[in-house]
Structure formats: C-alpha cells, structure tokens
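INFO batch 0412 | record 1 of 1 | parsing
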Amino acid sequence: MRKSYRVKSEKDFQTVFENGESMANRAFVLYVLPKEGQKHFRVGISVGKKVGHTAVARNRLKRYIRAALTDLKPYIKPDLDFLVIARPYARDFNMERTRKNLEHVMNLSHILVMKTTETEEK
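INFO prediction complete | emitting tokens
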C-alpha cells in the first residue's frame, strides 16, 4: 500500500482517534472519520506490545493487515480516514484469519461498499 494511503502524522492519528466513531470485534478496533472531498481512503495501523512481544510478531501482523486492505481496496469508501488497532486476540492469526476478522469489523462499521465474501460465495 502506497504511503499516500496512510495516516502518518501524530496529529492525524489523534484527530481520527478523538473525533471518529469506533467499532470493534474480538481482534480489531476501528476508528472511522469521514473526510469529504478526499480522492482515496487513508489508514493508520497500530499493533501494540500486548499483541506481540517481539517486533517480528507485530510487523508480521501489520503486513497481514496491509495485504488484506490492499485486497479490499476496491470496496473501501474513498472519503474516509480510519485506524486499525489490533487486539491481543489477533496475536497468532494467519493471513486468512486476519482478512476475515478485518473484513467483519469493516462491514460492521460500514466502510465497505459491498460485502465481498458473501457476494463471491453466492
């Protein structure tokens, strides 16, 4: 995912965190803030030390999250900034499980334009 798709600055993170609406499942918490007139969505990813004690484990989960977001990119509404915060439950997730849980919480928070998994299976 290109850097233009990322929430980078601490100020932007805090703005989304304080003013955005949150939605969660067991693995992830999402904070979503609509931003009118934006060409594409921006995402910030946070994986704390409670999730993985080593940088290797935390970076692996971040790679999985970025890969899942890249797969879901055509279905994500463009006028949003959102944060993905991993919970300790996601510690041992593989790529498929990460994608399913992330897609679930994104559907709950109405980030996705359409439910990809359910429509592909039918």
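INFO post-check: Residues 3-121 form a domain with the Ribosomal Protein S5; domain 2 fold (CATH 3.30.230.10).
INFO record closed
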